[in-house]
Amino acid sequence: MNLQKDTLYASPLGDIDGFKFDASVVDVFPDMIQRSVPGYSAIISAIGLLASRFAQADSVCYDLGCSLGAATLSMRHKISAANCKIIAVDNSTAMLSRCEKIITRDTASIPVELVCSDIQDIKIQNASVVVLNFTLQFIPLADRNAFIKKIYAGLRPGGLLVLSEKLFFSDLRQQSLQTEMHHAFKKANGYSDMEISQKRASLENVLIPETFTQHKNRLLQSGFDNAEVWFQYFNFASIIALK
Q1: What does the pLDDT look like over 21-69, one tens digit per residue?
Q2: Would you list which residues are annotated within the binding site?
Q3: pTM for this entry
Q4: Binding site for S-adenosyl-L-methionine: residue ranges?
């Protein structure tokens, strides 16, 4: 895997297109995600630990919006339950093609099925673990309730959903502070003000964040017994929802 530096927004772009997970993003994605998402490595590591706790024998673990397979690999190296498989789904052919090469080089024995599809079109069944790691935020708001209900219906009793998201804050001061600190995080990782501004413009109307309360209410209304934040770093958080 090429560990290229993310310079996609380092030069003035004029008209800025909406963000897409295309080949140009794939080439720099590992660098981009580490420098842009606070706590990303910690979340990935913990997904493996959570999967080791919740994966059930003869069940399926789903990584929905798998990108290059970081969460898939984390689960693959921690799951010990017998006869488990992982289904990793992404709608970007460029992402999935690179992910396939990474998975092929991996030596863990848990079988992985890669599926190129819109995650909303995937049938969730016999699942003990479902991971949505910064992917729900790219689904249209009007579709999110039905999608979470679909995941709940496909989970076994005792199953787990890991939902990681960029959060919005209803309090204006808090929203302003969290945004400021996220930008400070990116600047500390070498991004310029122009890069931060242009990336933000590309994500506008593509990535739609919600508050934790909105996420929790949706999860509870979909049938989950409870849902709580287990990790938060500025305006990025990960939630565990239990069936």
Answers
A1: 888 889 899 999 999 999 999 999 999 999 999 999 999 999 999 999 9
A2: 40, 65-67, 90-91, 118-119, 133, 200
A3: 0.95
A4: 40, 65-67, 90-91, 118-119, 133, 200
